[in-house]
């Protein structure tokens, strides 16, 4: 790094975490700029984690006004309605987050993420989107990819007691400890669009059922023109029909996407706070890793279901036809 | 979102949280959001600056206030309608007795030390209230469920013993930096600034003990009218020069080791022989003893830098001088405290000079402070994840959904694609002295050891009792309590000083003692076995407790270890991270080399588990246990057994 020292104040505040990830990582964190959109429970958890960690700045996007639903898993919005005063959810969250760590600049951007251009995204190192449509995810991901600098892109969503994280770090180099040595590694990520285009039959046999279920729901919302999360039990027949079509197209056995799972995902409109905490925590850790370039980041999906308690990483990548010898485990190339 | 049935048990539940620190803040928030309406929370700690990076309910303006109370107020801001009852108190206080525990449907631990964890475990067993236990360190964490009769209790498996070191490693043959830290902190610092009457091994292990002990007799005493500079140089030469020469004279020691190099003041700082260094009076304008710092007076700013031998020597002499110049009143009563800047500087410098002498790499003050203070590595994200998992288990416990209880490990590196790995809980250990009635065995020289040794070293230290009562048949040998008659108190005090075999009701080989803790409502039986001799090095207590716990290891350095944590369970191995901090939980899974003897893990059905050691739970580098890969289509099965297949337990890893 450029040798800038942490202030005494920073050293005292961040003492315990510097012992985990080191001074260098802390310096990089303090220069990182993060954009998040969709201030629901999971993103709120993530924001808390990243503000405590001491990033340089955090920009929030969510123009919605407070509703009872918005309050359900959001601990950043006080119960006292007198402070709402026409403020958007992002603005209310911003007020609380500033309080968590005075060393982090927290601000709000109004407007529709999909309408922002490259200049806007160019200001950030990390972009996290939640509660947005399939089309919006693809579009924002592409905007980040077109920039000359590398912007880490994440999507995160929780439904019922399930959660999903998608990660695109593009072409990413990092160091990791192997035995007593530090080795440099490189990972190549597909975009969201590329990842979900991988034919299902090309995927390993035991890919998490949640991966397929989330794709079915996502497609359903797109086809029906719904907002993200805007489904109910009445949609189940339509969802099951779509599952049949998709499974046939992909030559996948329908039993890989159980009815019960789809029913849970379609029915539950509110988040389950413990799952928000788990997913927001994992996402926080991943973003910290990506910024500090220390430790192996997850590639490229993460799933958690409170029903079975497993937190699983799935690598959804088009099989690469290269000499296997140049690759380590999971497509890692040692430099 | 939670189902209707879940919401019902959540709203009706009365929950006790123990600990409002790193996990506690996250847990209280997640409980409140999840719909819990009646939460009691106990924490004796007050808020410190180094908590603020993760204990997000606290602000700088709260430093010094009760964690439990501030956490309550913060959560009520977003959930004002729920009831949170805070206690700024120690969970071991007698108010928190079995009746107190009985009012709760579940107890959730976010604790930072082994002692309190054991205490809560016993109260939960006595009150028959389920316990969800947790711990984190760095990116690692775990959550376990303890329900009496259904799953193992927190103490069913021996906890890894705190890390301790053989005395001679510390006094004569250090090979790691931590040995130098222990020497600097527990021997040198204690000798210079602590209680002079304490035993101290600083000058032992020379080939010719008699000559050195005479020399050592008064060497640390500052002579009348001795100039402080002169005194500092004399101490420097004695501990880094003379003592090393003495050690070198014992040729036997160095046959297979690198010989250390004596370090003398004149060789390191020759040009400063006569001149004064530093300037105490000019720099310390304030009289606040806590702001005195050798780094400041020598103009060293960065605690992350590794100082040279010369810089360490200057810091050592300056710190020593400052103690005498600015904090003389405290000398004789000091014990090392990681928040005492000058003490940390002294210990860092002394450890580094010793390290230089033994060819061990030097370390920065920041690193030395972490080692000396056993500072827990802590980040917000792990605590948040663990808190989420605690709530998930708590809801299952409230629904008595026994077959779905899980212990979950949060890993830093994925194991078989998993970062969060659930495992079925163990059944209670039938030989557990806490939750079953299996007796323990104590080997002791009944003609030499006193009742006091037994009470202090076994009943309190090993069995973790606070208000013990010792009985031989119907005869009471010892008890503690506020309401005892005076003559009884005198009687017990007299008993403490008696040798076991000379007690009013003599304790000899074959005696069966009953030991009880009235507050914990916990008792156990100890069979006494007389033994003449004990190895001073390996069995410094002069006693050996067995039956459940492992034989106590050697060593000195009682302070460093205080092992806190201990893992909450050991379905997967646990590595003791001897942490001892303000707030956090440590504990962690990982590292197969601590699997209880003979246990073997079988991992199944996963394509990436191999026998070559790639997959252990978290720490790939030290997996030297056998792993057998089974091929199983759908379920991942982990088998834990004693090595012989008929006694192996099979469990499913979901
Ligand atoms: Zn037990």
From TrEMBL, chain A:
Subcellular location: Nucleus
InterPro entries for this protein: ThiF/MoeB/HesA, ThiF_NAD_FAD-bd, Ubiquitin-activating_enz
Gene Ontology cellular-component terms listed: cytoplasm; SUMO activating enzyme complex
CDD domains referenced in this protein's UniProt entry, alphabetically: Aos1_SUMO
Keyword Nucleus attributed: yes
Assigned keywords, A-Z: Acetylation, Ligase, Nucleus, Ubl conjugation pathway
Family per record: Belongs to the ubiquitin-activating E1 family.
Name under which the protein is recorded: Ubiquitin-like 1-activating enzyme E1A
Organism: Liquidambar formosana
TrEMBL record, chain B:
Family statement drawn from the similarity comment of this UniProt entry: Belongs to the ubiquitin-activating E1 family.
Origin: domain of life: Eukaryota
Protein name, UniProt field: SUMO-activating enzyme subunit
Domain THIF-type NAD/FAD binding fold, residue spans: 10-432
One example GO MF annotation: metal ion binding
InterPro entries: ThiF/MoeB/HesA, ThiF_NAD_FAD-bd, UAE_UbL_dom, Ub-E1_IAD_1, Ub_act_enz_dom_a_sf, Uba2, UBA_E1_SCCH, Ubiquitin-activating_enz
GO cellular component: cytoplasm; SUMO activating enzyme complex
Entry's localization field: Nucleus
Active site: 168 (glycyl thioester intermediate)
Lineage, uppermost ranks: Eukaryota, Viridiplantae, Streptophyta, Embryophyta, Tracheophyta
Entry-linked PANTHER family: SUMO-ACTIVATING ENZYME SUBUNIT 2, UBIQUITIN-ACTIVATING ENZYME E1
Biased composition (Low complexity): 604-616
Protein's pathway: Protein modification; protein sumoylation
List of residues binding Zn(2+): 153, 156, 432, 435
Organism for this UniProt entry: Liquidambar formosana (Formosan gum)
Annotated transmembrane regions: none
GO term, biological process aspect, one: protein sumoylation
Sequence ranges of Polar residues compositional bias: 201-213
Domain Ubiquitin-activating enzyme SCCH: 322-369
Keywords: ATP-binding, Metal-binding, Nucleotide-binding, Nucleus, Transferase, Ubl conjugation pathway, Zinc
